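re: ur question from earlier - yeah i can do the single chain one, its not a big deal. heres the input i used so u can compare w yours
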Amino acid sequence: MRSFEFAVDRRHAQAVNEVVAGRRRVRLAAVVAMLLGAAATAYLVWLGRAWSYPLAVACALVAATALWVALWAPRRTAIARLYAEGELVPAVVSGTHSRGAVLLALVNVARRDTGEFRYALVTKNVRGLPGHRLSAGERVPAIAVRGDRTARAIGERWLPVDAMPIAWGTPDIAVIERARAAIAEIEWRLLADNLALAERVQRSATKRLLLDPGQLPEGLGA
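and the output i got, formated as tokens:
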């Protein structure tokens, strides 16, 4: 696995990292659900009716689940850990839209415990990319955030993999350039040659397109 070490700027990440923002929204929703579930539980117990107790148990379970999510979300938002444990991957801007841009990334979707390499194209909608031009072909080094960090991935062969730009972790242009240089030119060329596939990937249910290993450039995936 190709890792990339750099000092994550927490203040910058909190401001621009869309993974942080998304998980912050999940945590807020979980807190609200927990409070509503707890209030409903208390009210149903207070009613003291035969039918209200089973409903109270159900609401208590909802509140407990929401509490677990609220406590779990901050751990999952340890952005420095995600950057440190993820693989450095190439992504390019495939196009822009009114709310930002679409990235096309090349990632390995095989489970780590298999030792396999199975490459796929994945897309990601982004609102902003500090340090980058939002123009087609712009090279955006990123870190792969893999689905095998979660229990739901058990049993799956090809995993969901998201791309988190290095630019969301640091405002230092030198770090972004160093990450860009650490990615092989054949990988950048592969993405550039397949920019037209981004729309097809976007339309797919899994938001990924598995690549034929026999058609990959020599030297990729070993």
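The chain is about 40% helix and 20% strand. not sure if urs matches, ping me
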